[in-house]
Amino acid sequence: MIKRILIGTTNPAKKQRFMEILNDYDCEIVTLDDLNITDEPEELGNTPIENAKIKAEFYSKFCDNVICQDSGLYFADMDEDDPRQPGLYIKRVGNEVLSYEGMITYYSNMAKNFGGKALVYYKNGTAVFSDNCFKEFMADDKTNKARGFYLLDHQICEPIPGWPLDSISQDIENHDKETENLLREYDIKFRKFIIDSFKLKKIEK
């Protein structure tokens, strides 16, 4: 029996990423829109993985197989407990929830404080619910920092739906061999985690 997998996010970029991984496997992919789900969980976790599990548990009411992700953004030149760190609250400043345009303005101004370019990295926590149990995936700090990039004080492209900060982001070029291997291993492990968690088989073409 083909598994129906719910991608539990409203973020179009994250939906696309998970679809790209799952497309070649024996499953039916559905989104919150497909199932007319408008309710959202209250994310009270202290880490990306805790929030991802909260989301997966919430959406498991609607589907037997769910994948969810939560992210935190960190400036490499600040302590992680620095009150200026966005952390889990990437879209929030104080009591204000930023629009995509507001995020671009706010973070480009932060980059300006670092001389126009700030090294940052994401911590992504991914949770899967399948076969009535939860599985989780989160890279270690070394890998997260290796996946870092620069935030700039100006836009270099049009905003991408779901990833507005990409418009002020610049990849790090010319990684050393160790970092390249680390990034390659991360991608392989992440894909394997998803496929193995759902026990999927590749579609023969």
Automatic annotation (TrEMBL):
Assigned keywords, A-Z: Hydrolase
Keyword Membrane: no
Biological processes annotated in GO: nucleoside triphosphate catabolic process
Protein name per its UniProtKB record: Non-canonical purine NTP pyrophosphatase
Gene Ontology molecular function terms on file: nucleoside triphosphate diphosphatase activity
Residue intervals passing through the bilayer: none
Stretches assigned to coiled coil: none
